[in-house]
Amino acid sequence: MKNSVSASVLSADMLRLGEEIEKLERNGIEMLHFDVMDGMFVNNITFGFPVLEKMRRKTGLVMDVHLMIADPLKYVRRFAENADIISFHIESDSDTMQTINAVRECGVKVALAIKPDTPAEAVYKYLPYLDMVLVMTVEPGFGGQSFMDMSEKIRLIRDRITESGLDIDIQVDGGINAETAETVKKAGANVFVSGSYLFRADDMKKTADILRAEIC
Fold first, then answer.
1. Averaged over 192-205, what is the pLDDT?
2. Which terminus of the chain has a lower count of CB atoms within 10 Å, N or C?
3. Which of 30, 32, 38, 31 is nearest to 12 (CA)?
4. Which of 43, 19, 67 is nearest to 173 (CA)?
């Protein structure tokens, strides 16, 4: 399964967002990770529909929308207008299967996200309906947190995916750098959300190549 990098918009320079997107494109980044926080599911507020719409007009990069909101089912259709994949949290108030179906009905790929304290087993029954599982390696809500090693959880999910004969990505989000990417790759992750590590790199392309490099 191909390894890929999703650049976290939270770490971009908001005053130069168009230029930041162009830089990502020039350096071969595959995805833009767009965190939506509502101040209820997590204690922070970030971006909404207008910013996502403008970014969608600006770029053809895969728009990787992560809904950290209390009621994702209510807003799926609006976000799906400008998303390629939507991640929502199993811990949210919305019915998980109804939300999965709503995303699929919009013709958008669907991912289920889980917090650090949520066990791997929570996602098992939903795997046949997913394109990706997002394993949080920090508590959702703020950027710049230290990496929490979720290797065992990732390994359990990857093993269940393999046993089930499914083709599903495992994304990791939080504290991802060269060292931590190697750790989660060994466990079975293949999509790496990177924020400050990527945006502050002297050589963004080289940094992305390190994140997605196959394990020798």
1. 95
2. C
3. 32
4. 67
Cβ neighbours around 139 below 10 Å, total: 13
Whether 143 shows a pLDDT value over 90: the answer reads no
Q: How confident is the model at residue 179 (pLDDT cuts 50, 70, 90)?
A: very high
Query: CA Rg, the chain, in Å?
Result: 16
Q: What is the 3-state secondary structure (H, E, C) of 59-72?
A: CCCEEEEEEECCCH
Pick the catalytic residue: 131, 173, 202, 209? 173
**Residue 84 bears catalytic tag:** no
- Our answer to whether residue 35 is catalytic in this structure is yes
**Which residue among 35, 64, 131, 169 is the active-site one?**
35
CATH number corresponding to 5-9+13-212:
3.20.20.70
Q: Identity (one letter) of the amino acid at 34?
A: F
Quick one: pLDDT at residue 210? 95
Long-range pairs for 106-110: beta carbons < 8 A, 24 or more residues apart: 106/76, 106/77, 106/80, 107/80, 108/80, 108/83, 108/84, 109/84, 109/85, 110/85, 110/86
**DSSP conformation letters of 90-140:** TTSSS-HHHHHHHHHHTT-EEEEEE-TTS-GGGGGGGGGG-SEEEEESS-T
Query: 52 Cβ partners below 8 Å, 6+ apart?
Result: 34, 36, 63, 65, 79, 82, 83
